[in-house]
Amino acid sequence: xxxxxxxxxxxxxxxxxxxxxxxxxxxxxxxxxxxxxxxxxxxxxxxxxxxxxxxxxxxxxxxxxxxxxxxxxxxxxxxxxxxxxxxxxxxxxxxxxxxxxxxxxxxxxxxxxxxxxxxxxxxxxxxxxxxxxxxxxxxxxxxxxxxxxxxxxxxxxxxxx
Length: 161
Hints:
The structure is a single chain. The chain is mainly α. Helices cover 68% and strands 0% of the residues. It has helices at residues 7-10, 30-58, 65-75, 77-88, 92-117, 122-148. Helix 4 crosses helix 5.
């Protein structure tokens, strides 16, 4: 929903700290966390159930759906381990590690998509393209969320008493 802002709001300077530097305006984390969670769950369900079913339908050799689901379940073991940290979306360290694993999934999905382009039907290519795009969107949400979370190395510790 768009809001009209007055000129004074648009041209207002950011708040200034006592050190003379402008304070960094924090952006909301909750909407990005929610988008990441929804996209992650959609990708998990799609990868676990949708991909084997669609490949069974669109591939002329009609591979077994149960075998496809079993293979995807095995392939998704790291993703299932990462799911709690992604759904919480609070720990920058866990999200960084998750991002690395998701980049591996994205690379593997891209390779599969690239190999399917030569010799597969258009419908099958779209199935793998959707998987690739969901993973790319997950990585985008992760990077935005990591940027908005508090810094990991500027933690101010209270002195011992």
